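lol ok so funny story. i was supposed to be doing the assay writeup but got distracted and ended up predicting the structure for this chain instead. priorities right. anyway since i did it might as well share w the group, maybe its usefull for someone
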Amino acid sequence: MKKLLFLIFISLSIFFACKKQEVAIDTSSKSEVLKIIEAEKGLQNLNSVSFCVVKEDSLLWVGASGYADKAANKPATIDTRYLIASISKSITAVAALMLTDKNILDLDADINKYLPFQVRNPNYANTPITARMLLN
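and the output, tada:
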């Protein structure tokens, strides 16, 4: 889990660094990004990593490093599939908070307001289930 969170942090760091500094991705920039990724891949003892550099709405560069299958000497590519583990929980929480910011979702409203079916805990039939409860 630490490795996964670290990779998310690195991805976000690269994303925000590119956005703030208006970095153009050229050969030297790619080289710097690769140095950072390779160093961290070694520190985190990762077999491989796939990554991208995004600036605003544009995908500037994609890459992969390491081995998708070390025993078979199969290199990682941008199409290598990775297990997502618990990252879907973080993505769901961010999406819910974005909907809350846009006043589309009320975290404390009864979840039945948003669903085409009724949801109730039979042990607490009078207590509404909220998005905040589900996110916790």
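The radius of gyration is 20 Å. Residues 52 and 62 are 4 Å apart (CA to CA).
back to the writeup now i swear
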